[in-house]
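Hi R.,

Here's the chain you asked about this morning:
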Amino acid sequence: MHHYIIKRVFSVLIILYSIVLSSQDTEEQIFFRSYGYIPNDVRPELYDELQKSIDIHKKLQLIEEIAEIHIQAGNTDSITYYGNLLKTEVLNNDDINKSIYLSKASNIIGWGKLKNGLYDSAMMHFIEGISSSPISEMRTLHYKHQLGLGIVYFRKSQYDMAIPFFESCLTETEDKETIILAKKFLGDVYLSKQDTEKATFYYLDALDNIPVITPNKIQLEIQINLGKIELFHNRTTKAMDYFVPVKEKAQKNHFYDLYIDAVYEIGKVYYRLGEYNAAELIISTARVNTVQWNRLDLEKRMILVLKNLNIKQENFKNAYALMTQYVRVSNEILVKQNKKAVKELEIKYQTLQKEKEILSLKEEQLLKENELEKQRTIKTAFLIGFLVILVPIIGLLFVYFQKLKTQIALNKSQEEVNTQKVYGLMKDQELNLIKATMAGQDKERQRLARELHDSVGGNLASIKLQLSNTDIQRDHMIKQIDETYNQVRDFSHNLTPKKFQKTPITLLIKEYINNVINGSGQHISFHPYPENEIDEISPILTEELFKIIQELLTNCLKHANAKNITIYLNHHKDSIQLLFEDDGIGFEVDNVSDGIGFKNIKTRLNALSGGMFVDSIVNRGTVISIEVPV
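And here is the predicted structure, written out as tokens:
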């Protein structure tokens, strides 16, 4: 509820900001519109008819019709609501064919989750739809679910998993809409792979099969992607020739999600042209609608572009605030997805597919056995002789398989022994490390004890003797006390490296980053805010933060294959906030165990009472947020 209120307040502020700017004579005043509400294109008569309807078949037909209108408009919450309503009505009524309507409900809910960026939830509903839609009974619906599942894999950047689903839709179904969408998404896959030639081929092939009499949403989506290809090749004028007409047609025909996409792409063109103020206004206008319509995935994309715009204008405070919002939206998406249930369902689906392949092989095997049976009937005498020869062969095979089984058991036993040896070596290495650490600590303690005994202890003994002599000179005693104080202070200072006592942390980090850039050639930017407050934190915290940043950079350079790395360090109220972002290959957070680097970072943060959040998507980079109390 708290996040919901914050989002609504944010949308109102953005709307007011847009209204103020609209008073200026700008081109954007004509082009762009912030709705500030969820458009509803369903005729009131349909709602009335649905409420009054008694016949269950008519009621289900009306729910499907309303859901399709919301799918075309891109109203994610309404799509999911009417999909669930269809499912509830079907389960509560025994006078209908439940299987076909449950399959339709799964498809509607899957599209609602897909458009909201909840890919794991969408996958769950499409897999359920495939399982409940046998090809022999519901061929068209079965491949609609296959198409949806392929789109989920595409959105998750798992292109090799997505392509087979789209290709099977091209060859195995006769439903024209499914075939056109499969061609369109094959174009999307190759556009994401930056193979613009193949992408253009599939887009034009899909357009040839779409009627041009009335505006078609798929047709407009393809035209947006053709504009993206022009923008990829820096042909901004040609790109705008696609984006602007699509925006106008999408608004006119109430394709609201497509309208947001077009406005977003136009904002990117202005960003590419260096017109940052216009770009910020356009994308902020589009973001209002994503917040109000609960389009979380689109909102994440808008936030990243707005963050880059603020960095270009050197407004690092706003850039950091936007990245904080990005982390919040990512968290909201994670909370809404039941990854464990989805993973189990995905494995179950894959197992079912393998079982179908095995069943197909068994059917072929039965056909061959029938053929052999016919031959056995015709050539009985030959087969008897063959069996006489076969018996010794079977015996040999039995002996061979027994030997093979014994060898496998032996190999397994040897593997267990090797594992134990490796484990023992690792334990020995850990023990040696602990012993070396303790020896070093003992040695350091002995050195400090000697220093304290020989210098500080000697001085204190001398002072004691002098105090017992009342004729001692006062000035000489004060001099010895000062000398002893200075020795104790030197011991204290020696326990913390001098560079963290005398040099500001921002300068240390900048020097370290420059050394990394000279050695790797990567683009690394560092933004401390406010710099003077960060430089005033304690040397102990300075040392720990420096080592955490070293560890993050080392991990990124080793594994991420990133071209750009951005580091934000903020001092806000009573905490230090560190945000580390890269555009590398990313990883699945739930499927990767912590390495030594992350374990070291978590150990340091535990000692500082700090926390860490990691957001990463395969092929879309990583964002790490760290907060430490001062």
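One quick note: The two ends are 30 Å apart (CA to CA).

Cheers,
M.
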